[in-house]
Amino acid sequence: MTSRGKFVSGIVPPEVQSDPAWWFVFQESKLLVYQKSDSITIPFLVKPDELSLIITSRNYLGHLNSRHCYAAEVAEGTSPPAGMAFEGLRQVYGRLEDDLFWIAARAVQIIDWDRTHQFCGRCGVPLRPRTAERAKECPQCGLLHFPRLAPAIIVLVERGNQLLLARSRHFMPGMYSVLAGFVEPGESLEEAVVREVKEEVGIEIKDIKYFGSQPWPFPHSLMIGFTATYAGGEIALDDKEIEDAGWYTAEKLPRLPGRISIARKLIDGFLAKQGKLHED
Ligand SMILES: [Zn+2]
Fold first, then answer.
1. How far is the CA of 147 from the centre of ligand 1 (A)?
2. Measured in angstroms, how far is the CA atom of residue 144 from the centroid of ligand 1?
């Protein structure tokens, strides 16, 4: 779905970092950026010490077009250097170069995992990093701890020239989107699609087709997109989750999710198929 430039993932950093590298410096989930008028960028330095920041953890990420990339964390309450700011990833999208944005999305998840997986969940001793894969190992019991990744399905259901849009209770005012939900243990992606649609709006679907996928770092999901066709039933809302749902045509659409999301790509795909791509 998203361009990855020439990013190659890696775990073990070079022995000596003598060339400038991209530094994805986070405070909690906020990225340190240089502010310009309409675009932003991130530090490209040999060492983050040049910014006089105290780094509390660092993880090697790999390289982008032969430039090394690091995720680093600074303590809560650290002030940004002059001309810089800590910004949430959603605010950064569209202003930071796309390749760097998606590496930042990776970086924030690795930092969060590193921060929250310091000790073995079974025996409580400090974990040590593995070098052959992105994982930590318990030196006492051998239990492996991998970065957390929660798979979630997202599905656009169509009925003739209409698509199903729904409003979740936590959406911004007026915004509608396609249905989504987490995959349960033991379930296939297709089963999760059928179950979510049935649970949330009470209808039956058919012709489930894979659309594409997208990492979603809020905080650690992988969105797996599908399209499907209406097969029967009346809309009946699960009102714990869904506030409203209905069939919409390209001519009359509510407020849609931003272009960062696979939800929007699904909707744009449907509109493009009808020759009615929505521009805003
Ligand atoms: Zn253990």
1. 16
2. 8
How far does the centroid of ligand 1 lie from the alpha carbon of residue 228, in Å?
44
Q: Which residues have CB under 8 Å from 67's CB, separation 6+?
A: 19, 20, 21, 22, 44
DSSP symbols for 207-261: EEEEEEEEEETTTTEEEEEEEEEEEE------TTTEEEEEEEETTS--B---TTS
Whole-number Å distance, alpha carbon 125 to ligand 1 midpoint, is: 6
141 C-alpha vs ligand 1 centroid, how far in Å? 4
Ligand 1 centroid – CA 145 distance (Å): 10
- Output the CA 126–ligand 1 centroid distance in Å: 8
The pLDDT tens digits for 48-70 are: 888 888 899 999 999 999 999 99
Amino acid at residue number 31:
L
Tens digits of residue pLDDT in 264-276: 999 999 999 988 8
Instruction: Return phi, psi of residue 69, to 5°.
Output: -130, 135
Residue 110 Cα to ligand 1 middle (Å): 21
Q: How far apart are alpha carbons 56 and 98 in whole angstroms? A: 27
For 45: left if phi > 0, alpha if psi spans -120 to 50, otherwise beta; the answer is beta
What tens digit of pLDDT does each residue of 66-92 get?
999 999 999 999 999 999 999 999 899
pTM, whole model, 2 decimals? 0.87
> How sure is the predictor about 279, in pLDDT bands with cuts at 50, 70 and 90?
low
Q: How confident is the model at residue 4 (pLDDT cuts 50, 70, 90)?
A: low
Q: Ligand 1 mean position to 116 CA, how many Å?
A: 15
H helix intervals, 26-126: 89-92, 98-116
Using the mean position of ligand 1's atoms as its centre, give its distance from the Cα of residue 219 in Å.
25
